[in-house]
Amino acid sequence: MSKVDRELIDPTIEPSSEKLHRVIGATVASIPAFGPVAFECFNTLIQPPMEKRQEKWMLQVTEAINELYKKGIVTEKELQKNETFFTTLVNASNTALRTHEKEKLDSLKTLF
User: Are 69 and 111 contained in the same domain?
Assistant: First the structure.
Protein backbone atom coordinates (compact mmCIF):
# COMPACT_ATOMS: atom_id res chain seq x y z
CA MET A 1 0.00 0.00 0.00
CA SER A 2 1.39 3.41 -0.96
CA LYS A 3 1.63 6.29 1.46
CA VAL A 4 -1.18 8.89 1.35
CA ASP A 5 0.01 12.30 0.22
CA ARG A 6 -0.82 14.66 3.08
CA GLU A 7 -0.75 17.65 0.71
CA LEU A 8 -3.99 16.40 -0.83
CA ILE A 9 -5.73 16.78 2.53
CA ASP A 10 -3.91 19.64 4.25
CA PRO A 11 -1.81 21.71 1.84
CA THR A 12 1.13 23.58 3.35
CA ILE A 13 0.81 26.36 0.78
CA GLU A 14 -2.25 28.56 1.01
CA PRO A 15 -4.30 28.57 -2.22
CA SER A 16 -3.65 31.60 -4.46
CA SER A 17 -7.30 32.69 -4.30
CA GLU A 18 -7.12 32.93 -0.49
CA LYS A 19 -3.86 34.90 -0.65
CA LEU A 20 -5.26 37.29 -3.23
CA HIS A 21 -8.39 37.91 -1.18
CA ARG A 22 -6.32 38.52 1.96
CA VAL A 23 -3.90 40.92 0.19
CA ILE A 24 -6.69 42.93 -1.42
CA GLY A 25 -8.55 43.06 1.90
CA ALA A 26 -5.44 44.30 3.73
CA THR A 27 -4.84 46.92 1.05
CA VAL A 28 -8.41 48.18 1.22
CA ALA A 29 -8.31 48.23 5.04
CA SER A 30 -5.18 50.40 5.00
CA ILE A 31 -6.95 53.33 3.32
CA PRO A 32 -6.83 56.20 5.85
CA ALA A 33 -10.16 57.02 7.54
CA PHE A 34 -12.24 55.05 5.04
CA GLY A 35 -10.33 51.74 5.31
CA PRO A 36 -12.42 49.81 7.85
CA VAL A 37 -15.67 50.65 6.06
CA ALA A 38 -14.17 49.80 2.67
CA PHE A 39 -12.83 46.52 4.04
CA GLU A 40 -16.27 45.48 5.31
CA CYS A 41 -17.81 46.39 1.96
CA PHE A 42 -15.12 44.36 0.18
CA ASN A 43 -15.79 41.31 2.36
CA THR A 44 -19.53 41.71 1.87
CA LEU A 45 -19.32 42.00 -1.90
CA ILE A 46 -16.54 39.47 -2.49
CA GLN A 47 -16.91 36.43 -0.29
CA PRO A 48 -13.61 34.79 0.67
CA PRO A 49 -13.10 31.54 -1.27
CA MET A 50 -13.00 29.43 1.91
CA GLU A 51 -16.37 30.79 3.02
CA LYS A 52 -17.88 29.87 -0.36
CA ARG A 53 -16.54 26.35 -0.01
CA GLN A 54 -17.84 26.10 3.56
CA GLU A 55 -21.29 27.36 2.61
CA LYS A 56 -21.56 24.90 -0.27
CA TRP A 57 -20.53 21.99 1.97
CA MET A 58 -23.01 22.97 4.69
CA LEU A 59 -25.82 23.04 2.12
CA GLN A 60 -24.85 19.57 0.87
CA VAL A 61 -24.80 18.15 4.39
CA THR A 62 -28.14 19.78 5.18
CA GLU A 63 -29.68 18.21 2.08
CA ALA A 64 -28.27 14.79 2.99
CA ILE A 65 -29.56 15.00 6.58
CA ASN A 66 -32.98 16.20 5.40
CA GLU A 67 -33.12 13.19 3.08
CA LEU A 68 -32.44 10.90 6.08
CA TYR A 69 -35.28 12.57 7.98
CA LYS A 70 -37.59 12.32 4.98
CA LYS A 71 -36.92 8.59 4.56
CA GLY A 72 -37.52 8.03 8.28
CA ILE A 73 -34.04 6.57 8.76
CA VAL A 74 -33.23 8.86 11.67
CA THR A 75 -34.81 11.65 13.71
CA GLU A 76 -33.32 14.97 14.76
CA LYS A 77 -33.25 13.90 18.42
CA GLU A 78 -31.35 10.73 17.52
CA LEU A 79 -28.72 12.70 15.63
CA GLN A 80 -28.33 15.25 18.42
CA LYS A 81 -27.46 12.47 20.87
CA ASN A 82 -25.30 10.44 18.47
CA GLU A 83 -21.60 11.04 19.26
CA THR A 84 -20.48 8.89 16.31
CA PHE A 85 -22.51 11.05 13.94
CA PHE A 86 -21.05 14.22 15.41
CA THR A 87 -17.48 12.93 15.12
CA THR A 88 -18.09 11.83 11.53
CA LEU A 89 -19.63 15.19 10.65
CA VAL A 90 -16.72 17.17 12.09
CA ASN A 91 -14.06 14.99 10.44
CA ALA A 92 -15.84 14.95 7.07
CA SER A 93 -16.34 18.72 7.22
CA ASN A 94 -12.67 19.37 7.95
CA THR A 95 -11.68 17.21 4.99
CA ALA A 96 -14.31 18.74 2.70
CA LEU A 97 -13.08 22.26 3.38
CA ARG A 98 -9.59 21.23 2.33
CA THR A 99 -10.47 19.93 -1.12
CA HIS A 100 -12.01 21.13 -4.34
CA GLU A 101 -12.20 17.69 -5.95
CA LYS A 102 -15.79 16.76 -6.75
CA GLU A 103 -15.15 13.01 -6.36
CA LYS A 104 -13.87 13.46 -2.81
CA LEU A 105 -16.74 15.76 -1.89
CA ASP A 106 -19.27 13.29 -3.29
CA SER A 107 -17.66 10.47 -1.32
CA LEU A 108 -17.71 12.49 1.89
CA LYS A 109 -21.36 13.38 1.35
CA THR A 110 -22.27 9.67 1.20
CA LEU A 111 -21.22 9.39 4.86
CA PHE A 112 -24.52 11.01 5.72
Answer: yes
pTM: predicted TM-score of the whole model, two decimal places: 0.54
CA Rg value for the chain: 19
Q: Is 59 helix (H, G, I), strand (E, B) or coil?
A: helix
Distance between CA atoms of 51 and 57, rounded to whole angstroms?
10
Say if residue 75 is in the same domain as residue 41: no
Residues 55 and 37 in one domain: no
Q: Read off the pLDDT of residues 53-96 as tens digits, 9 standing for 90 and up.
A: 888 888 888 888 888 888 888 888 888 899 998 898 888 888 88
- Total structural domains in the chain? 2
